[in-house]
Structure prediction request, 366 residues.
Amino acid sequence: AMMFSGHLGEVARVAVEEGAAGLSRFSLRLFTPIAPMLANSAEDVEETLERLGEAAFEYKLDGARIQVHKGGDDVRIFTRQLQDVTERLPEVIEWARAVPVRDFVVEGEAIVLRPDGRPFPFQITMRRLGRIKDVEHVRREIPLSSFLFDCLYLEGEGSVIALPYQQRIDLMSKVIPSSFMIPRIVTNDRAEAEGFLARALAAGHEGVMAKSLTAPYVAGQRGFHWLKLKAAVTLDLVVLAAEWGHGRRKGWLSNLHLGARDPESGQFVMLGKTFKGLTDEMLKWQTEKLLSLEVSRDEWTVYVRPDLVVEIAFSEIQESPRYPGGLALRFARVKRYRPDKSAAEADTIQTVMGLFQKQRGEGQPG
DNA sequence: AGGAGGGGATGCAGTAGGCT
DNA sequence: AGCCTACTGCATCCCCTCCT
Prediction:
């Protein structure tokens, strides 16, 4: 495992080039992890079907990606970053051994579910996955489920990464119990796909993945054969402060502190920071603007009069041990500035708490 | 296509400090 | 001297968008 603890590029070089296969650049060996195939985002089902035509739609679970290698009695499990996490996931070892095929490599998602099958927040899965000590004890309290969506190698077939996706799924379905397969449909019908997406979201999941039926497994690449579809949620928040950037952002105010309005106190509740989504032009503009609003500063940060409103996209609201409001945005990024809005029109902490409750509700029974 | 810019959370290991 | 807690730093998981 030591040799794979380094950077992704190292691993890519370790894998053997397979020029003859053309589309699939790397061959696969058991117990040598291969860089996972990645996805791009799509706006909606319509765009997805335009790009892919008839496609597979699968639930997108907010867990941790796993690549499971089995050779005889030996099982090894790798993360997206190709870390060997075998010892932490006894559940996976058990089902992999139970599959009546000697050798395989499959990919999927490991996630912690509630008894009724709805997902816990990602934080819970992380709590479990990060746990190294007392694994046998935590697995009773935080059991891990697996849902598989691809097959890279199969006894009797060898490497199947060059095969079209639908053929890989067909091969996998013959040996993997259906309860371990990710919920999936194949369609070119917009309404059907939209219904499937709505069910995924209603079940508390992140959204869906849409996948070309004909594409090979393109290791390590973020191509357009796989597209992710998620619910788009944004908040209009107020910039409370900004930190000086590093590297190519040196000299610009980059990392924004974001706050929601609290009508009761008239103050703003910080929900986290972001530096994502900013073009150089926006960096330049906001540096000038924020300096004009400066009220104080320290070594890294310029604090400003709460005035500027930004539209912020994010993936979910998390419980935060760090911020006073007890909530923080996960993967916040700037969509655009809202010069048309004043700070008094920004979204409130009550709105954020409402979204958080709704989010929890979707992950809970009833 | 890859790098840069850094977000939040977790668990773990190490250290500091207080207490018995 | 030994034990407990608190804090910090590190590695790892999840992820995005812009720029070269």
Summary: The longest strand of chain A covers residues 144-154.
